[in-house]
């Protein structure tokens, strides 16, 4: 021991220092190794857990076979739906074609005369003998085509009357319709009244087609004046026609003056239509006066009335029959 050289001692002291310095390094490496092992254990446990979770999810979700089966079913359903649509479209187009064919045939039949129809029938019958029979359209298609067709009995109304007022002209008057009523001796026989003694009285006047009773809101009254006194008051709203004269058996308003004819004149309520500034028709029932070709005539507000012609009566008009001094004043009561 005492024979060691100073070089050996220095070498030993260096080795001990090196060992001392190496000890902490080895401890750090051990620690790192432990951390690595713990990390690997954690990673493996996490991996195993995720595998188990994925397995569970896969077991819950449908498999690839189930998915492919569902896809095939969806495809089949789509094909069936498309097939139904195509069939409906074909049926609709066939129905429309048959309806158009029927309408064309009807139009041709309406435009042509009987001779043309006979020729067409003969032509079709000859075609039927030589050519094979064509299939007729189904009954449903025919009924649908008949329903869709709208038959117009006459031409559409013209709009000239609507614009006549705005253009400054007058609307065209409607054509007079045929009158199938009695005329001549037959009309005289039908407009006659038989009395108790067997004699007949022929009426000189009969009401027109536009005769109407006045509206209950319009209270027309006839006041009979003799000088300053009111002799009688007649409510004209109870009927549409008032015959004035001396013939007690047929008249409605008796006038006994000798200058008045048996059937002198008539106060007639008629429905008349007028157009306003917008071209709209406005109808109203108004009173009119007509003289029945009397011997001494009829006066309206001091002027003589032409024979067999309607003149419109207005509020506060005064009428006189023959040479009678009685005055008949027409009054319209004010509305409440």
Give a nutshell description of this structure.
The chain has 336 residues and is of the alpha+beta class.
Main attributes of the structure:
6 helices; 42% helix; alpha+beta; 5-stranded mixed beta sheet; elongated; 6-stranded antiparallel beta sheet; 336 residues; Tumour Suppressor Smad4
CATH architecture of the domain at 204-332: Sandwich
Largest sheet, in brief, is: 6 strands, antiparallel
Shape: elongated
Q: Order of strands in the sheet with the most strands?
A: 4-3-13-12-9-10
End-to-end separation in angstroms reads: 156 Å
Poorly predicted ranges: none
Percent helix among the residues? 40-55%
- Please provide the ordered H/E string of secondary-structure elements: HHHHHHEEEEEEEEEEEEE
Give a structural overview.
This protein is α+β, with helices and mostly antiparallel strands and 336 residues long. It has a domain at 204-332: Tumour Suppressor Smad4. It is built from six helices and 13 strands. Strand 1 and strand 2 form a beta hairpin. This is Podospora anserina S mat+ genomic DNA chromosome 5, supercontig 9. Pfam families: FHA (PF00498). Residues 1-44, 63-117 have a biased composition (Basic and acidic residues).
């Amino acid at each position: 021991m005492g024979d060691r050289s100073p070089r050996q001692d220095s070498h030993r002291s260096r080795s001990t220092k090196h060992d001392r310095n190496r000890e902490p390094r080895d401890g750090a490496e051990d620690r790192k190794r432990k951390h690595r092992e713990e990390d690997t254990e954690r990673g493996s446990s996490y991996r195993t857990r995720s595998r188990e979770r994925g397995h569970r999810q896969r077991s819950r979700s449908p498999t690839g076979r189930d998915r492919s089966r569902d896809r095939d079913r969806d495809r089949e359903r789509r094909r069936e739906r498309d097939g139904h649509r195509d069939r409906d479209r074909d049926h609709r187009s066939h129905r429309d074609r048959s309806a158009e064919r029927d309408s064309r045939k009807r139009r041709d039949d309406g435009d042509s005369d009987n001779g043309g129809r006979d020729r067409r029938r003969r032509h079709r019958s000859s075609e039927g003998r030589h050519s094979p029979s064509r299939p007729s359209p189904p009954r449903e298609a025919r009924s649908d085509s008949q329903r869709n067709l709208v038959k117009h009995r006459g031409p559409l109304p013209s709009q000239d009357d609507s614009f006549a007022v705005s253009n400054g002209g007058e609307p065209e008057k409607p054509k007079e319709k045929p009158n199938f009523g009695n005329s001549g001796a037959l009309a005289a026989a039908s407009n006659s009244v038989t009395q108790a003694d067997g004699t007949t009285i022929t009426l000189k006047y009969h009401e027109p087609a536009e005769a109407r009773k006045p509206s209950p809101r319009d209270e027309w009254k006839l006041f009979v004046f003799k000088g300053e006194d009111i002799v009688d008051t007649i409510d004209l709203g109870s009927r549409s026609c008032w015959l004035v004269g001396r013939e007690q058996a047929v008249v409605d308003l008796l006038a006994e003056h000798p200058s008045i004819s048996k059937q002198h004149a008539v106060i007639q309520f008629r429905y008349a239509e007028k157009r306003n500034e917008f071209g709209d028709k406005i109808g109203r029932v108004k009173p009119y006066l007509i003289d029945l070709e009397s011997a001494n005539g009829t006066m309206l507000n001091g002027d003589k009335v032409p024979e067999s012609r309607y003149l419109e009566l207005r509020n506060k008009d005064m009428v006189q029959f023959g040479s009678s001094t009685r005055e008949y004043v027409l009054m319209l009561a004010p509305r409440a």
